[in-house]
Amino acid sequence: QVQLVESGGGLVQPGGSLRLSCAASGSISGIYAMGWYRQDPGKQRELVARITNGGSTNYADSVKGRFTISRDNAKNLVHLQMNSLKPEDTAVYYCHSYPPQIGVAAWGQGTQVNVSS
Q1: Are 88 and 102 in contact (CB under 8 A)?
Q2: pLDDT at 103
Q3: Would 48 disulfide with which of 36, 59, 76, 100, CB 3.0-4.6 Å?
Q4: Are 10 and 18 in contact (CB under 8 A)?
Q5: Is the confidence at residue 80, as pLDDT, over 90?
């Protein structure tokens, strides 16, 4: 099964930047859309950004203009560049593949992002 492994989370001050990476253990070229979701304890998991195989992107209103998603099918990587981070961006960030398909994990294990002074 293709696994998704996130990295790049950590502690950053407000206004800072982080770059999250999602490394797939197999090819992502056949996966229609790759995305990033986030979840705070006690809250619902929410879509942050998504990118299709054709390069179309969509973002949550709360991150537009600050976050950028990209994918590298040749390297089986998906990145989320996060700039101008705010305390409300604090959450566990999950990599996601869509649509569900046999042999491909839908979610990674998550990476924690903390934005605090």
Answers
A1: no
A2: 87
A3: 36
A4: yes
A5: yes
